[in-house]
Amino acid sequence: MSIAERLAKADPGNAEWQRDLSVSHDRIGDVQRAQGDLAAALASYRASLAIAERLAAADPGSGAGAGPGNAEWQRDLSVSHNKIGDVQRAQGDLAAALASYHASLAIAERLAKADPGNAQWQRDLSVSHNKIGDVHATQGDLAAALARYHVSLAIAERLAKADPGNAQWQRDLSVSHDRIGDVQRAQGDLAAALASYHASLAIAERLAAADPGSRAGAGPGNAEWQRDLSVSHNKIGDVHATQGDLAVALARYRASLAIAERLAAADPGNAEWQRDLSVSHERIGDVQRAQG
Fold first, then answer.
1. What residues have CB less than 8 Å from 4, skipping those under 6 apart?
2. Average pLDDT of the segment spanning 108-124
3. In this structure, which topology does domain 1-115 adopt according to CATH?
């Protein structure tokens, strides 16, 4: 950080040095957030935002109505708003988080409109809708959340269709189905939730199968795909449990447990995998108790 500060101070007109300083603030904010120091993270992200705003304002093409200008500066600005929104949401300040996410969305919309063929801008747009949907869901406005998630899903579907071999686009599509399923389940529409979760599961299964290291007996392979698969089984099991179909729920929970066991065995020091293992055992225990 001190090097970036010295360079930026020595040559204030050098946009690249300024951007390096902004990125340094972002990285420090990421660490502070991971450590749970949200106030410090917010200060770091705001320092980054201030630089991003100056860079965007200094680019004549970056003004409102003038197109995206220097897209890199614009995207930095959008990311900064999102990071600030994430911290505000973690702090429980949902109104402020929503404002930050909307600020990010406005930039993402301009970038996507100016360059419709740019997949990254389209994905940023999808992410912004998801984040706004998450806040609405937390606020209990399920209809508004569902609307946002459907917009995000439509974008994810276009990206996945345009590039079927891109695992990230496929995973985004899977996550969108999951989010929609969560809202449908909260609304009591269990049949629709089950359909959404099965759509997510189908994608997770394809991703896991496409990773040679993900096959049974070969270790966890790509742990992210494996965990997605485990989560999908759990969500489907939850719906079946709510519907009273305990035998099917138990089968799903056991499928999730088998994956959790492989992940935990492959990386015993990973607290997340250990927690997943614990949750799987709890779910199975709950069903067995309900079965008498």
1. 17, 20, 21, 23, 24
2. 93
3. 1.25.40
